[in-house]
Design goal:
- By secondary structure, the protein is α+β, with helices and mostly antiparallel strands.
- Helix content is about 50%, strand content about 10%.
- It has a 5-stranded mixed β-sheet with strand order 2-1-5-4-3, sandwiched between helices.
- Helix 4 (about 45-90) packs antiparallel against helix 5 and helix 4 packs parallel to helix 8 (about 205-225).
- The longest helix has about 45 residues, at about 45-90.
């Protein structure tokens, strides 16, 4: 019987047998050949064990890739928020601060709309770029589509018809960040809108948005009169 391998290939494999172990397709072929040789009534435990280990390795690799992707997304998200925060802090006064939301900060956040929504208060003279709404509106839009309100929690959801006039355009998903400006100030919410239906979803984390909302609140308070 002649050798199936030429001498050069045989010598190379003998010198480095790990090359076979590192090749999954080759190992599968070897296991299949072994099982065909022993017959259907014999179970090759080593082959079965190798298949189980390979399946586990595939799962571990998939998890590893998911963790890396999530870490990259988080780092990218942090960079976006940091740029937006710097954009807020660079504004000169209240009018510039409010005007910058839609023109400068929304593009930095990669969203289509960014609106400051404030319930009417005669004592508070806000720039025209702020969205003034009647009393009770903010509670209504925060609780829309939910069985019970959750206080000042950030709301992430598919866009609702009730908020479309506030965005000023049709969007697919939205985030609502309630802002506590103190007992002497009117109810206020920061409204974000995206054309991407997956941008703001209830299952998403809110840590970065919460940080942005806190910085936004402090910057707004610093620019309000009185």
């Amino acid at each position: 019987m002649t050798d199936a391998l030429d001498p050069e290939t045989r010598d190379r494999l003998l010198a480095d047998p790990g090359a076979i172990l590192a090749d999954r397709d080759l190992m599968r072929a070897l296991v299949a050949a072994r099982e065909a040789e022993v017959g259907d009534n014999v179970i090759d435990i080593r082959g079965r064990a190798m298949q189980a280990l390979e399946t586990r390795l595939d799962r571990l690799e998939s998890t590893h890739e998911s963790v890396i992707a999530a870490a990259y997304d988080n780092q990218s998200g942090m960079a976006v928020i940091h740029r937006a925060v710097l954009g807020l802090l660079e504004t000169a006064d209240l009018a510039d601060f409010i005007a910058a939301l839609q023109t400068n900060i929304a593009p930095l956040l990669r969203i289509e709309t960014l609106r400051l929504v404030v319930e009417d208060d005669p004592a508070l003279d806000l720039p025209r770029d702020a969205v003034a709404v009647p009393h009770g509106t903010i509670d209504r839009i925060l609780t829309a589509g939910r069985r019970a309100p959750r206080g000042d929690d950030i709301v992430l959801r598919a866009a609702l018809v009730v908020t479309r006039p506030l965005h000023g355009r049709t969007i697919a998903s939205e985030a609502l960040l309630p802002l506590d400006l103190g007992p002497a100030r009117p109810r206020t919410v920061l409204l974000m809108g995206s054309s991407d239906p997956t941008r703001f979803m209830p299952a998403h984390g809110t840590d970065l948005l919460r940080f942005f909302g806190q910085v936004f609140r402090m910057a707004l308070l610093a620019r309000l009169p009185g």
